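Many introductory courses stop at the sequence. We go one step further.
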Amino acid sequence: MVRPRWLEICAGLVATAAVQTTSAGCGAATHGGPVVASIHAHTATAPADAAPCKLGDMADCTIRCRERHPGSCVHLGLMYETGKGVARDDARAAALYEDACEAGDAQGCSNLGFMYETGKGVARDEARAVALYQQACDGRDAHGCGNLGFMVETGRSVAKDDARAVALYQQACDGLDAHGCGNLGFMVETGRGAAKDDTRAVALYRRACDGHDAHGCGNLGFMVETGRGVANDDARAVALYRQACDGGDAHGCGNLGSMVARGRGVAKDDALALALDERACDGGEAHGCFNLGTLYEGGIGVPKDDVRAAALYEQACTGGDSAGCEQRKRFP
């Protein structure tokens, strides 16, 4: 539930800057854009009457769930959802989360909400997901508050309300949900539903990154790279982008690729830049495809290949990158 950032490209060359869907001119850092889908919490809240089974202990979790220990049903559901120690079965996982939720386990409600939001094991139903996230949040489940905040921010089956989303993200962050901290950071950074405050945004991104939220690390890297709310430090930005990329954030890979391509905070390495842009593009980051296209068009770190470049610009354009659309027009 965090906002990715990507890179501005100028005159067919890779330029460093963290951006989203807008352009502020050649080489300028811009910002704003879409959110990534809700984060699913993979932890369980223990019921008051008994500790849940150990996650991964199929036999014990099955017995305890049958004995109506809700936290154990959540753990068993997670095992079926992830295929840990048992054949993956989303429908079975959803049924177990429902049992836990009906027994008063807030984490079960939150996880069931995610299943309805994404259509995993059940028919997709965003309205029901909203209701379940609300139930989870009312039960003091931080992840449920964060996921509800995402639905409210984006107006999915509930009235769009940035101020309410900020309050929900704050509640999630206060409950130690790293993704909630990251999303709150973005709202504060952009002044949506809260006073714009780069220094506070940096602190929130740091909390997110310290909580192992890869997108939070990437967003913190952007602030460090551009010196917004914190001192500029290219080497630190590189380390944060690497942490984001290693954590699965495609946009972090793209930003790291740009730093490597220009030798900012790290040794210049065209081959590594190419590999990072490939990871970004393969991860669905449209501007990463655009960056990769410029490398193929310019023969940077790879043999020049206009056909491949045109295909990558087309892929970037299809993914919503306007620069890719413009570059694609230059090819037959």
